[in-house]
Fold this sequence. Notes:
The chain is mainly alpha-helical. It contains eleven helices and no strands. Helix 9 runs parallel beside helix 11.
Amino acid sequence: xxxxxxxxxxxxxxxxxxxxxxxxxxxxxxxxxxxxxxxxxxxxxxxxxxxxxxxxxxxxxxxxxxxxxxxxxxxxxxxxxxxxxxxxxxxxxxxxxxxxxxxxxxxxxxxxxxxxxxxxxxxxxxxxxxxxxxxxxxxxxxxxxxxxxxxxxxxxxxxxxxxxxxxxxxxxxxxxxxxxxxxxxxxxxxxxxxxxxxxxxxxxxxxxxxxxxxxxxxxxxxxxxxxxxxxxxxxxxxxxxxxxxxxxxxxxxxxxxxxxxxxxxxx
Length: 267
C-alpha cells in the first residue's frame, strides 16, 4: 500500500487509533474519578521500556507487562484500604523515577528518552502501525464485550453484585484495557502525556453528552480531531507532535466547557 509510505499518513492513522481506543476508557476513568490511575499506569511505561531494552524484547510486550503489573498492584493495594490517591501518587512517581534510572544504567544502549516521554508519532513505521491497531482492536473488543458490565460496576459495586457481576473482575478488565492503550500509545504521545489523551477528550465530551455511549463516541471524535489537528500544527510550526496534540485537546476542552457554561446560563 503505497499510501502508507507517507509518514504523515502513518502518523495520522496512529493518532486516530490511540484516540479511538482511549475514548471509552477515558470515559470510565472520568466516571470513576481515577485520573491518577491512568497516570500511574502510563508512568510505569518507562520501566517497561527499560525492561524491553535490557532483555532485548519487543517494546510493546515489555510496556504491556509492566503497565498491567502496575494496574494490578494498585488494585490490590486499594482493596487493602490504603488511601487510593496516596497509593497512586507514590507508585506513579516511583515507577517513573525507577524507569528513568534503569534506562540510564543500561550499558551499550543509546536511548532517546524524549521519544518515550513525549512520543515520536512522526517516526511510526508500518510495523508500529500494525501493533497500534492490533491493540486498538483488542481494547474495542473488550469494551464491546463488557461495556454494560463496566458501566454497572462504575455506577455502583453493590448494584453490580446484585446483577450477579463481580466488580473486582470488571476493574481487572479495565486495568487490562488501560495497559494495552498505554503500550500502544507510548510511541504516539509518550508516557507523560498518555493520561492527558485518556482524560481530556472524555472531559471535553462530558458537557455535550446525554448518554454514556454518546459521551464515548464524542470523546473518540474529539480525540481524533486532536490527534490529526495536532500533527498538522506540529508540522506547520515545527513543534513536538505529542505535546501539540495535547494542546489541541486542551483547547477543545476549553471550548466545549465554555459552550456548556453558556448553555447553562441561557437556560
